[in-house]
Design a protein that fits this description.
Elements (H helix, E strand, L loop, with lengths): L25 H27 L4 H5 L2 H21 L4 E4 L5 E3 L5 H34 L11 H25 L5
Antiparallel strand pairs: 1-2
Helix pairs in contact: 1-3, 3-4, 4-5
Length: 180
């Protein structure tokens, strides 16, 4: 490391370091948590609806297992906001110095939040894609006979994509971890 004047030692004059903390305001956190709670509530209402009418022909035709997967993935994706809201400082004191959090692994929470969001979003997207694939197979039936589509292939595709997502996240965290 070289300083101005091509010297290796830092200059004697002291520089005052200005630090700007970009904290999320408590009102924004509260609004996001309320919104997440509403999503959870709506998801549980949908699960209750699915459980109550599971054997109805209309619901059986709509492939309820993929709806359950989409709700589960939504719950995972929404739960990431709680981890992403964790900050390493609680706020600033009267002199502007940071008040440190008691949590030791804030960086890990940051990475885990994005990972949970990514896996949850993959589950939602690929369960809807599998559902759309099943509908496509029905409408591409030229013989107008009954089409039997098993869940096995659809689950295989979903699990393959989610597994690939998890492997990529683990490799990312191993080779290039989040550092602050």
């Amino acid at each position: 490391l070289r300083y101005p004047g091509n010297i290796r030692t830092p200059p004697e004059e002291a520089f005052e370091l200005q630090v700007e903390y970009n904290l999320i305001s408590p009102s924004i956190k509260l609004a996001v948590y309320i919104f997440a709670g509403l999503i959870y509530f709506f998801g549980f209402v949908c699960v209750g609806f699915l459980v109550k009418y599971w054997r109805k022909p209309v619901l059986v035709a709509s492939q309820p297992i993929f709806l359950v997967l989409a709700i589960f993935g939504s719950f995972m994706a929404v739960s990431s906001v709680f981890l992403l809201g964790v900050e390493d400082i609680k706020g600033l004191d009267a002199e502007g110095n940071p008040i440190r959090s008691s949590m030791k692994n804030d960086v890990n929470f940051c990475m885990l939040g994005w990972s949970i969001w990514s896996v949850g979003t993959s589950i939602v997207a690929w369960s809807l894609i599998a559902k759309s694939y099943r509908i496509l197979r029905i409408f591409r039936n030229d013989s107008l006979t009954k089409v039997k589509i098993n869940y096995t292939m659809c689950f295989l595709v979903i699990s393959t994509v989610v597994t690939a997502n998890i492997v990529l996240l683990v490799l990312w965290d191993h080779f290039n971890p989040v550092v602050f």
